[in-house]
Structures are given as structure tokens and as C-alpha cells.
Amino acid sequence: MTAEIEQDEQLPSALVDELKRIDQAPSVITSRVDRTLSTMAHGHFSSRPVRRWRQPAWGAAAACVLAAVLITTNPLQDRSDRSIYADVDGSGAVDIADVLALARSGQGVDQGDLDAFAFRLVSLNRDVGP
Amino acid sequence: MKKLLLTLALAAVFSTAAWAERAQSPRFVPLEVQLDSPEPVAAWQFELEDRQAATKVVGVESGGHPAFRTAPYYDRTAVAQGDTSRIVVADYSLADTDQLPSGRIRLATLHLMVRGEPDFELRLITATTPDGGAIDASISLAETSTDPKERSP
Description:
Low-confidence stretches of chain B: none
Shape of chain B: elongated
Order of helices and strands of chain A: HHHHHHH
Mean pLDDT of chain B: 89
Number of domains of chain B: 1
Number of strands of chain A: 0
CATH architecture of chain B: Sandwich
CATH class of chain B: Mainly Beta
Number of strands of chain B: 7
Oligomer: heterodimer
Order of helices and strands of chain B: HEEEHEEEE
Mean pLDDT of chain A: 77
Largest sheet of chain A: none
Helix content of chain B: 10-25%
Structural class of chain B: alpha+beta
Shape of chain A: elongated
Strand content of chain B: 35-45%
Radius of gyration of chain B: 21 Å
Strand content of chain A: under 5%
Low-confidence stretches of chain A: 77-81
């Protein structure tokens, strides 16, 4: 009984050979085909115009310089922090009358900026206030 | 006799100490800052300081006039901390001229915590008309009336 079972667990040799044959990778891309494709590719791309990569480099450099200037100076912050905090009405002093003049000037100054200007006037912090 | 003198001496010491403590105990005082202006006021700014530093500003209230409906501008951080004896208050209004206050105006009510005898210095920094013209106005302090009828702006 045991010998029959052991004999049944071994596949027939013909079946094994057939399975090995199927498992082999098909030889679709031969070396000849590879050379032909490479020649065709070279011929195709050699006929296209060459791009001048030096021109975008100047543009990238200018963009980097501009970005560096904007990051270090932050002109938007400077505008709200310095330019409106001034003697708008020419009275010789910076006070709430300047906030009123700015609000009535019709320049479209943001209410947040007007509030910031007014709070700066009343600040008791010597480094900030009047 | 000695006991009597000793008793009198101790009584004098304790009564003096009690009086001093009462004088130094804090009391809360609301003060109105009033402006007398012959012209309509569109913007105003004043500064109040206690030269004795016996006062701490603990609150600022609007004067209540409709043209200045919102709370005025002041250093809210300093007032919230309750350790300042000086304050600058300001406000402006974009209301039409006929809606602006004139005459005697209550600009603000300051809530103060006073310990001792203060020595206030009140300074009007500016008062202006809608077109920015300076107003020859005078500013003063007044105790807040407890009568609601007298508290109208």
C-alpha cells in the first residue's frame, strides 16, 4: 500500500518536461529586434530640433532673486506697519486725527489697518506707542 | 497709673494703624472724562496719569453717544493686567456732522482701583472736527453720578 502511494506522488516525466517547457520565458525580443528598434529611435530623435536649455536657466535665476527679495523685505507687511502710521493730516503730530483723515480719505484703507493704527497710538508700550 | 498709660499708648498705636490701613485699602472709583466742545467732535484723544501711582485702571467704558457706539481705543492688555496708572484713550467717528456730539460730552468712563490719594493729570491730546480741524475744547474729570437720568451722553 505504501509503495503504491509513494509511486503515485511522483509526476510522470512527460508531464514534468511539458511544464518546464511552458515555464520558460518566450524569446520575443531578440538582439536583432533590439538593434533595429535602437536604430529607428536614433533616427527619429536626431531629426527633432535641439532645445536651448540656457534660456530657462536665466529665467529661473531671476525668479530666485525676486523670491529672495520678497522673502527678506516683505513689502506687504512694511506697508501696513510703516507707511500709514504717519502724520497724515500734516498737523505735526501722529494722533487719532490722522486715523480719521485716513478713514475719510477714500483710499480704501482696510478697517483692520485703521484699527492697528489706532491701537498703536494708545499703546502704553514705549517701544510702540506715542 | 503705669498700666493706664500703657493702655492708652497701645490704643493710640492700634488706632493709628487701623486708620492707615483704611486709607490704603483699595476702593473702586468710576470717573467720567468729559469734553466741552463748541463744535461737533469727530475724533478725540486724551491721556490720564496718576502722578502718585495710587491708581490702577481696571476698565474703560464708552461714553455712550450713538456716534461713538463701540468701545474706544485703549491699551487693553495693560488694563487687563491691572497694573497701569496711566492710560491713553482715543476714538473717531465717520458719522455725518449733524450726528456728531457737541457741547458737554462724556468721552469715556474710567473704572479705577484707588489705593491712597491719587494726583491725576488729564491731558487732551486732540479733538477734531470731521474735516480734521482742531477744536479749542476743554477736558475734565467728574465723579460718575449714580442717578441713571444724569448718565445720558
